[in-house]
Automatic annotation (TrEMBL):
Residues 22-165 form the Flavin reductase like domain. It comes from Acinetobacter stercoris. The gene is C1-hpah_1. This is p-hydroxyphenylacetate 3-hydroxylase, reductase component. Keywords: Oxidoreductase. Gene3D superfamilies: Electron Transport, Fmn-binding Protein, Chain A, Winged helix-like DNA-binding domain superfamily/Winged helix DNA-binding domain. InterPro entries: Flavin_Rdtase-like_dom, NADH-dep_flavin_reductase, Split_barrel_FMN-bd, WH-like_DNA-bd_sf, WH_DNA-bd_sf. NCBIfam families: HphnlacHdxRed. One of its GO terms (molecular function) is flavin reductase (NADH) activity. Belongs to the non-flavoprotein flavin reductase family.
């Protein structure tokens, strides 16, 4: 099997390469919460959540043995799984940080199990602690679901070190028969539906071209944002690239090792080679844009861009 990162049996696995390979498995994003008997609350962002059993209703997730948050999870009789919605990137970033009052200025309720439940999630599960199992450098925590809340919101996804959202798979785009009305019914007059379908169709061919550049999604986003100078400091990157701090740190470390950026302390700056790499990515994007919009006049393109900017609020 061909692979850029492979190892022989008995050889020690490169932890960073292993983690990057695991990043190819798209997951949802959760915040695990608990409260012990004296009222200490804890919350951690995690994508290790998974179902285990339907009868009894069991789920599991894992936490680093070095995490200071583990103590409260261990002391608590119950915990909650908050499955984040696509609009909760900032909440995910907040609970991925260390050393601060994560619950400050965050709206939440206490569930029947006395566990913090966040508003506007996709779903939430209140769990009785069922077992804690040792798993290498992590603790695997199993929970028995005693109550759940299904809000049905579109979930926040995590893939290749960057946040993503659910879009229909291209193979589900059934072509109409010859002579059939391409836009039947009221659905095709719904702007939200048309916009999401347009994004899906546009990304279908664009993403493979970007990945062929050799940059992962997280690295490409950083290069493009830093070249555009829309993020003037590190804090701005959270808003612009839609990535958690951990992945920004990992991606910037990789780009720095490649000689594409430097850390100035409060911000990152692209090197000459970094600007060249960003230009290559822009060329890929512009080539695809030209291919898609070649049948429209310059006036139509400018009007379309103006409408998009108006929707964004620029």
């Amino acid at each position: 099997m061909n692979s850029l990162n492979k190892f022989e049996f008995g050889e020690k696995i490169d932890a960073k390469a292993f983690r990057r390979a695991l990043g190819n498995f798209a997951t949802g994003v959760t915040i695990m919460t608990a409260q012990n008997a004296v009222g200490e609350k804890v919350g951690v962002t995690a994508n290790s959540f998974n179902s285990v059993s339907l009868d009894p209703a069991l789920i599991l997730w894992s936490i680093d043995k070095n995490s200071s948050s583990f103590r409260i999870f261990e002391e608590s009789t119950h915990f909650a799984v908050n499955i984040l919605s696509a609009a909760q990137i900032e909440l995910s970033n907040k609970f991925a940080k260390r050393g601060e009052d994560k619950f400050a200025n965050v709206e939440f309720d206490l569930g029947d199990t006395n566990t913090p439940l966040f508003k506007n999630c996709s779903a939430a599960f209140e769990c009785e602690k069922y077992n804690i199992i040792e798993g290498g450098d992590h603790w695997i925590i199993l929970g028995k679901v005693v109550k759940f809340h299904d809000h049905g919101r579109s979930p926040l996804l995590y893939h290749q070190g960057a946040y993503s959202a659910v879009l229909p798979h291209p193979s589900l785009n059934i072509k109409p028969e010859k002579g059939e009305d391409i836009f039947p019914g009221k659905l095709y007059h719904n702007m939200y539906y048309l916009l999401t379908q347009a994004v899906r169709a546009y990304q279908n061919d664009y993403h493979p071209k970007q990945l062929a550049s050799g940059f992962r999604t997280s690295e490409a986003r950083l290069l493009l944002v830093l070249e555009s100078k829309t993020a003037t400091c590190k804090d701005d990157l959270l808003r612009e690239v839609a990535m958690p701090i951990r992945e920004i740190d990992q991606a910037t470390e990789i780009l720095a090792q490649k000689g594409l950026l430097i850390d100035t302390g409060n911000a990152y700056e692209l090197t000459e080679n970094g600007n060249k790499a960003a230009l290559m990515l822009y060329n890929i994007a512009e080539s695809h844009q030209e291919e898609i919009f070649s049948k429209y006049s310059s006036q139509e393109r400018e009007l379309f861009k103006k409408m998009l900017k108006d929707l964004i609020g620029i």
